[in-house]
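Record pair follows.
FIRST:
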Amino acid sequence: MFDKSITAYEEAKKVIPGGVDSPVRAFKSVGGTPPFIDRGEGAYLIDVDGNKYLDFIQSWGPLIFGHCDKDIEEAVIKTVKKGLSFGAPTVLETELASEIVEMYDNIDKVRFVNSGTEAVMSAIRLARGVTGKNGILKFEGCYHGHSDSLLVQAGSGMATFGTPSSPGVPADLTKHTLLCEYNNIDELKKCFEASDDIACIIIEPIAGNMGFVPADEEFLTQCRKLCDENGALLIFDEVMSGFRASLTGAHGVVNTKSDIITFGKVIGAGMPVGAFAASSEIMAHLSPDGAVYQAGTLSGNPVAMAAGLVSLRKIKAQKGLYEKLNQKVTKLLAGFKKAAEDNNIAFQVDSRGSMFGFFFCEKPPRNFKEVGTCNFDRFAKFHQEMLKRGFYFACSQYEAAFMCEAISDEDIDNCIKAAQEVMAKL
């Protein structure tokens, strides 16, 4: 069933560390060999052995219309024929920035970069430049890319300054990073009591990298309040939830507004792109208008801009898109939940818009430590058996899942039926 993928994986390991270019793709958490993908078609992935999978990852979020969407594909091909990159301004950048800005009442300007990691790194530098402070406050389990100062691990239950979680990251580069438990207001307050040098809070308002764990409304309110009281800025990392949880991401489903937003994924429709956005007052500090330097040779790449522009315009043109996607998610998760209950399996589900997650545990986890108490062995078995039946979910319980428009009700019915078979064997 996976013969060609097994061969491809062995060949890849000879020339690529671990055989993959991003660690989670190696299937270490769930076992087995990762299928090597040949192509995507709408809701499906097809691997090099010819196996077909209903795709609930969608390139980790960007493909809200599924693989090879005709309109996005045409825009990319048309733009490619004009040239791949110029290192100079294009009208496409202005058009995409305008589409984003007009959706929000708290941002006026956008700067495009090449990835979510780059967007977050630049947003933090901007916050430090605006406030004149050095510290950043992040939350255990929230992933903000792989830049050095954000690769830190938490202390033992108390807010603490970060220590590197990866060899190769000097402690000097993480000493300004404070850590706090997600959804823990007491620890949040202690961080501000411990330091008067916090430039910003950065948070995934809907966390997708400790599994799917939304922040409590009151917790976000306190983040906003403490930033305002202490001269810090609030950054919402919406690289994953942006244009996924709603038309305006988490901003459309929570009551708290941030000062800076970081984007990625959907705004490139599968092309490498990221962005950060804020008010005119904050963005005035950014080079060339201000002193905070930020640059990139391929930033605002015309092919990526064309793909993102068509994607966002399609999203805005389809009234009720997010309601339809959430109905599909709700139907899928209700089917999974019933299958688990029928087999006396502890199982939790949650969703926002087209973004969702599930855990094998007794009660909904609210932070990284609680996610760690879930049954990972059971998740791995579920993943393996669903993959054999043609359903492709994230290969770690620490990841979220995504619904795309191309997935049909019949696809969901088939997936629920497969889950019932698998749950009966767990």
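SECOND:
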Amino acid sequence: MMAAEWRLSGEYLEACTCKGACPCLYLGTPTEGSCAALVGWHIESGHFGDIVLDGLNVAVALNSPGDMAQGNWQVVLYLDAAADGAQRDAMAQIFGGQAGGHPALIAGFIGEVLGVEQAPIHFDAPGRERRITVGGHAEALVEAIEGQGGAAVTIHNHPLAVAPGQSLVVARSKALRHRGHGLDFELSERVAYYSPFSYAGP
């Protein structure tokens, strides 16, 4: 059965275990040999068919055992506990890759799904900071690096992109942790990024 027409836009952040500028974005080898990350999306406006997704959040904890572009990612998908059953199923289809669009391309890198669950997810964006919490499982708090004249440092046209077509704001993690489903990490002062995103499908 063909997926419903859908569209999402909002903001996302990612924080990972790499040091400096994450080489994964340039199809390079992670600085630690593997790359574990927490990625979160806040949907400012979205729909899946006639199902409204405004204001909901999604998060993915992942581990790439080597170069991200080679795949074999282990992932845990978290869907906002504020979603009702129809909204939950719609987000699971989109971010699970079954509904096409850019999320389907990202899902092609997944080798193993360790878990899918609903949890309270909060995404805040005060000033230069971005923060996501996922129940008691995960947290990422990041702050943009200050560039020339106080402006944000950005990168664009990177080949491996969560938000294609967008310039990423380069940030540093103040906190990054995940516990559960056999995917545990906790550290800080590593690389992070955030930007708007816009997806559509199928």
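COMMENT: The first strand starts at residue 6 and ends at 16.
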